Amino acid sequence: MFRLDGKVALVTGASRGLGWAMAQALARNGARVVLNARDAAAIDARVAEIQAAGGQAEAAAFDVTDTAACAAAVARTVERHGRLDILVANAGIQHRSPIVDFPIDDFRRVIETNLVAVWALCKEAARVMQPAGRGRIVVTGSMTAIAARPTVSAYIASKGAVHALTRSLAVELGPKGITVNCIAPGYFATEMNTALVNDAAFDGWVVGRTPVGRWGRPEEIGAAAAYLASDEAAFVNGHTLVVDGGFSASL
Ligand code: GCO
Fold it and tell me: What is the mean pLDDT of the chain?
């Protein structure tokens, strides 16, 4: 079950954190994975790691806020491999500041990366999946779009929109054989959260509020992405799969 042999996937933000974990999981299950990140050297190293482990991978270094680059990457993938079966629109950034001090330019940057780029990638992927009558789109949302905390208003707004976009596209693309689902991570010890992990009070709060009593491990997100990308998940559509150790289920 959950094999992806013969499938071609594009994963954005794949050089580290949750994106890297998802790219590894898809490759481990047999997919040919196109890994995206802004940093060409970082993504080349990750491609080499997957290849060394016997997987199929190639690099696509571009900034997801460059919508022309997004379109070109999808077109190049189809040109090279004749298909794009799976999109994992994961790349995202964080900016933390009380709203009263939050620079509008930082707000716009977060929205451009976490929402506009995700929308643009979904558009390009749908354009090539539709003729095939099949596709899997997985977007990275956030538990904070379900239960918020202070000082991350741009991130939460962007992720809340991504959760809504998931439902919108699931309804529009479902009839074309394309499912669209969202993975909403809880607190994971990724590079984006290094400052939080290293803050003893915040670390204690996360561990105390999470029923399983720890931060998430990136590989635990990889398994969720591999499932949603699989043939077995054909009847899962418009769903937000929360992977948070029970954090958002608890008072
Ligand atoms: C923060 C964190 C969160 C997590 C994750 C939780 O500052 O609270 O960055 O946003 O990264 O998104 O779901």
Answer: 98
Contact call for residues 141 and 166 (beta carbons, < 8 A): yes
- Cα dist. 51→24, 56, 114, 148, 187 in Å? 10, 6, 29, 39, 29
Given 20, 62, 155, 187, the catalytic residue? 155
Q: Ligand 1 centroid vs 108 CA: distance in angstroms?
A: 18
As a whole number of Å, the end-to-end CA separation of the chain is: 36
Could you tell me the pLDDT band of residue 196, with boundaries at 50, 70 and 90? very high
Q: Would 168 be classed as within a structural domain?
A: yes
Query: Which of 206, 93, 112 lies closest to 155, judged by CA?
Result: 93
pTM for the full predicted model: 0.98
Residues in the ligand 1 pocket, defined by CB under 6 Å = 94, 96, 142-144, 149, 152, 155, 185-187, 192-193, 196
Considering only CA atoms, which of 22, 109, 126, 27 is closest in space to residue 71? 126
Amino acid at 141: G
Annotate 149-208 with DSSP letters as a single string. Answer: -TT-HHHHHHHHHHHHHHHHHHHHHGGGTEEEEEEEE--B--GGGHHHHT-HHHHHHHHH
Residue 151 pLDDT level (bands cut at 50, 70, 90): very high
Closest-CA residue, ligand 1 atom 9, reads 193
- Domain of 162, CATH number, reads 3.40.50.720
Is 250 part of any domain? no
- Structure tokens of 233? 């998940």
**22: part of which helix (H) or strand (E)?**
helix 17-28
CA of 196 to the centre of ligand 1 (A): 9
Domain coverage including residue 142: 8-243
